[in-house]
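Researcher: Quick test of sequence recovery. Tokens follow.
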């Protein structure tokens, strides 16, 4: 019989271990040498901080077109406010094909309302502390023809009429010479309660089952000064119990732009359905459209422009099996400041939003809406600019506005003074001559009153 001694046993056990250790050290040395040979050069990270700080004075003679005394709301007649708004944005270039973006909004903070001297000046109680919000927070990876963006970012369709929101999204883009294809997945916020706890747990009670999602693709073609856009999006909305909505939106757009000329046209169509969305829980079919176009020409110191957009209206009956009002972002290219969003600073008091309704973050107007405007801008020199705008608005289905079609005429005169490349002062005079439709859709008491609405905006902007 062959006997193995203790020493032999130790050798047998130690030999494989020694071989493994030597192999590991050799592999580590090879990897280290390879890493030193292939080590990337040290890259330089760059940081960029830009933004704007604005302080503005708003004065209006009324908040609607009805001069009737408001005994139940004595402060709701006239509108006057001084406020400050700060919007910084940080961009970080990591040097490894990745950029990180972060944007913060402090304000709209009214001088007579928001108090920075509180013990907890950033408390969540509305109307007292300084108001702030995180607007954008996303990263962008780029490598040759590919790019990937993920996080809270601006999501916009080619027209901006349907999607024009800051929401959580993932974008994948591929460039093919003079064309590109972009795919998008996004989630829109909703207020549907998920879970069974009294105090909502935002981690465990968010189950992705009653949420609102958007999928889509956007193809763009460049041909000299021309751009052609074709895009399609699908909205799935399960935020309403047993009333799921499926909405498809198709966008076609074209643009021609040179140094002195700019023309654009967008056509949009919507089709979809909602389970039990009508009266008596009947299913609803959705068919809607929108159109937007404009032209801008510069001659010397003058710039002329004409712009128009239309959003389809619902039919005469509310709650039937057909919904034909366009669901959109409530944003457009109009230069009006009362009918539509004021680009100096949006206070969410523009008439197109006040007269409509909302499905989550999408707005729609049962009476429909068409706004057209003419503008003349004169740039006298490097420090003074004048911009005059005349806008007209009307409904598309008068039967949803007590038989009224004409909404009114808006007049605005903007004057901008450049104090330095980083500071501007502006004055805007505004007037709106309301029609019957505006009185019906906006007034709180007397639906026939058509008092002229007028006001002024003064402001200072600092850019960095």
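Model:
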């Amino acid at each position: 019989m062959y006997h193995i001694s203790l020493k032999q046993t130790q050798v047998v056990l130690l030999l494989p271990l020694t071989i493994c250790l030597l192999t590991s050290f050799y592999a580590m040395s090879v990897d280290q040498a390879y890493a030193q040979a292939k080590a990337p050069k040290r890259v330089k990270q760059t940081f960029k901080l830009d933004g704007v700080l604005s302080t503005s004075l708003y004065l209006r003679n009324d908040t609607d077109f009805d001069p009737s005394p408001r005994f139940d709301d004595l402060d709701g007649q006239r509108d006057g406010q001084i406020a400050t708004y700060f919007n910084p944005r940080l961009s970080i270039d990591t040097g490894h094909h990745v950029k990180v973006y972060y944007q913060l909004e402090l304000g709209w903070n009214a001088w007579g309302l928001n108090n920075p001297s509180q013990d907890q000046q950033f408390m969540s109680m509305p109307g007292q502390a300084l108001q702030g919000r995180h607007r954008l927070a996303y990263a962008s990876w780029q490598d040759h023809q590919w790019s990937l963006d993920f996080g809270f970012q601006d999501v916009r369709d080619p027209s901006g009429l349907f999607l024009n929101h800051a929401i959580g999204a993932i974008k994948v883009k591929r460039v093919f010479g003079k064309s590109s294809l972009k795919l998008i997945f996004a989630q829109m916020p909703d207020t549907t309660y998920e879970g069974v706890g009294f105090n909502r747990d935002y981690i465990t009670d968010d189950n992705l089952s009653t949420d609102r999602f958007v999928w889509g693709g956007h193809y763009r073609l460049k041909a000299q000064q021309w751009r052609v856009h074709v895009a399609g999006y699908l909205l799935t909305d399960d935020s309403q119990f047993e009333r799921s909505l499926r909405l498809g939106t198709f966008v076609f757009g074209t643009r021609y732009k040179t140094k002195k000329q700019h023309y654009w046209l967008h056509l949009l169509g919507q089709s979809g359905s909602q389970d039990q969305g009508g009266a008596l829980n009947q299913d609803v079919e959705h068919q809607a459209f929108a159109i937007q176009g404009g032209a801008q020409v510069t001659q010397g110191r003058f710039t002329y422009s004409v712009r128009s957009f239309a959003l389809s209206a619902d039919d005469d009956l509310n709650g039937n099996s057909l919904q034909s009002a366009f669901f959109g972002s409530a944003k457009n290219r109009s230069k009006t400041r009362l009918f539509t969003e004021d680009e100096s600073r949006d206070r969410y008091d523009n008439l197109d939003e006040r007269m409509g309704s909302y499905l989550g973050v999408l707005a729609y107007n049962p009476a429909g809406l068409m706004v057209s405007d003419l503008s003349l801008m004169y740039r006298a020199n490097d420090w003074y600019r004048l911009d005059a705008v005349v806008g007209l608005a009307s409904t598309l289905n008068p039967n949803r506005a007590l038989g009224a079609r004409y909404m009114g005429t808006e007049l605005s005169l903007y004057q901008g003074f450049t104090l330095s490349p980083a500071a501007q002062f502006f004055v805007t005079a505004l007037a709106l001559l309301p029609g019957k439709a505006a009185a019906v859709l906006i007034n709180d008491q007397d639906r026939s009153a058509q008092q002229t609405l007028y006001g002024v905006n003064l402001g200072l902007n600092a850019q960095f």
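Helices lie at 6-38, 351-354, 436-442.
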